[in-house]
Specification:
By secondary structure, the protein is α+β, with helices and mostly antiparallel strands. The chain is about 35% helix and about 25% strand. It has 4 helices and 13 strands. It has a 5-stranded antiparallel beta sheet with strand order 1-2-3-4-8, with helices on one face. A 5-stranded antiparallel beta sheet has the order 11-10-9-12-13. Helix 2 crosses helix 3 and helix 3 runs antiparallel to helix 4. The chain is elongated and about 90 Å long. It starts with 10 loop residues before the first strand and ends with a helix.
Length: about 300
C-alpha cells in the first residue's frame, strides 16, 4: 500500500502516539507500525469531544465491525484546539458531500510495517567482525607465549610482531577468499538479469580509483526488488559505468544480496597482485608462530 494519499492538500493531527492525515478523500491513521486507511465512504460522522479530541465514527452496525482494531469509532488527539477544529472542518465538509457505505468497516485497510532492522555500513561491519576475532586471536597468541620454548622477552617480541603481521596479511586474504567464493557460487548457480547502477562503494577514501564497487538495483526473476546491492567485482573508477547506467549482472537465487557485475581481467589481476602482497606479512606470521611452538 502506498504511503501517499491522493485527493488534495492534507490536514494532519499528531498527538498521543497517533498521526492522522486527511486529504478530503481518505483518512490515514498511523500508530506505531500499524497503518489504517479509510475512504470517506467508510465514515459516518465526526465530532469534537469535551476533551478536545476529534471523534470519528465508522459507518455500520456493531455486528458488521471487522477485526481491524479501530472499533466502531476512533478518537484522534490534537496538539491544540485550532488544529482539532481545522481537521474536523475538513472531515465534516467531505462527509457532507459523500454518501456513507452501509458497512464502512469492510472498507478499512490495515497495513503492518515490518520492524526496522539496524543495517551497518561496510566499515561498521568490518569493525564488528574484527571485534569478534581480535580477543580470541590475542588470547591464542598469549597462551602460545606462555608455553613457548623461547625466553619470555623473545617470545613476547616475536608474537607481537607476528600478531600484527597476521592481521595485516590475514584480513586482506580473508576478504579476497570471500570474494572468490562468491564468484564461484555465482558461476555455479547465478541467474543473469539487467539492473541499474544506483551508487558505489570504495575500499579506501584515498587513491581508490581502481576499487569502485557499484551498488546495483535489480528485480529477481520471482519479482523481489533488490536495492543498492554492492557488486562482488570492481570496475574502473574513472569510468562513468561505475556510477550510473544499466548493468548486466548475475545474482544468487539462494542469497539475492550476493550479486556481481561480470568478472574482468583487471579485477582478476588486481586481486592476484594484492593477494601476493598480503602473502608476505602472512608468511611472517606463520614463521613467528612456528618459532614459538613448544614442540
Amino acid at each position: 500500500m502506498s504511503n501517499a494519499i491522493s485527493g488534495g492538500p492534507e490536514t494532519m493531527l499528531a498527538a498521543g502516539g497517533t498521526t492522522a492525515r486527511f486529504n478530503g478523500a481518505r483518512l490515514r491513521i498511523v500508530r506505531g507500525r500499524t497503518i489504517w486507511s479509510l475512504p470517506v465512504r467508510a465514515l459516518r460522522s465526526a465530532e469534537l469531544t469535551p476533551a478536545g479530541a476529534v471523534r470519528i465514527t465508522i459507518s455500520g452496525t456493531p455486528g458488521q465491525a471487522a477485526q481491524h482494531g479501530l472499533g466502531l469509532a476512533v478518537e484522534l488527539q490534537a496538539p491544540n484546539a485550532r488544529a482539532a477544529a481545522a481537521f474536523l472542518e475538513k472531515v465534516t465538509a467531505a462527509l457532507a458531500r459523500t454518501e456513507p457505505a452501509a458497512d464502512g468497516h469492510a472498507l478499512v485497510r490495515v497495513e503492518t510495517r515490518p520492524r526496522r532492522q539496524l543495517q551497518l555500513g561496510p566499515r561498521a561491519q568490518a569493525v564488528v567482525r574484527i571485534a569478534y576475532v581480535l580477543p580470541p586471536y590475542a588470547l591464542l597468541l598469549f597462551l602460545l607465549g606462555l608455553f613457548s620454548p623461547l625466553d619470555r622477552g623473545t617470545a613476547s617480541g616475536t608474537l607481537i610482531v607476528g600478531g600484527v603481521m597476521g592481521l595485516v596479511g590475514g584480513i586482506p586474504l580473508w576478504r579476497m577468499f570471500r570474494r572468490v567464493r562468491s564468484l564461484w557460487l555465482l558461476r555455479k548457480r547465478g541467474v543473469g538479469v539487467v539492473g541499474k547502477v544506483t551508487g558505489y562503494v570504495r575500499i579506501w577514501d584515498k587513491g581508490g580509483h581502481l576499487w569502485v564497487f557499484s551498488r546495483m538495483t535489480f528485480t529477481t526473476i520471482d519479482g523481489q526488488r533488490m536495492r543498492d546491492i554492492p557488486s562482488v567485482v570492481t570496475v574502473w573508477g574513472l569510468s562513468d559505468q561505475a556510477y550510473s547506467g544499466q548493468v548486466e549482472l548475475s545474482y544468487d537465487p539462494e542469497h539475492p544480496t550476493r550479486a556481481s557485475r561480470p568478472l574482468t581481467v583487471g579485477f582478476a589481476f588486481r586481486t592476484l597482485l594484492l593477494a601476493s602482497a598480503a602473502t608476505i606479512p602472512a608468511t611472517g606470521f606463520v614463521l613467528c608462530v612456528l618459532g614459538n611452538l613448544p614442540f
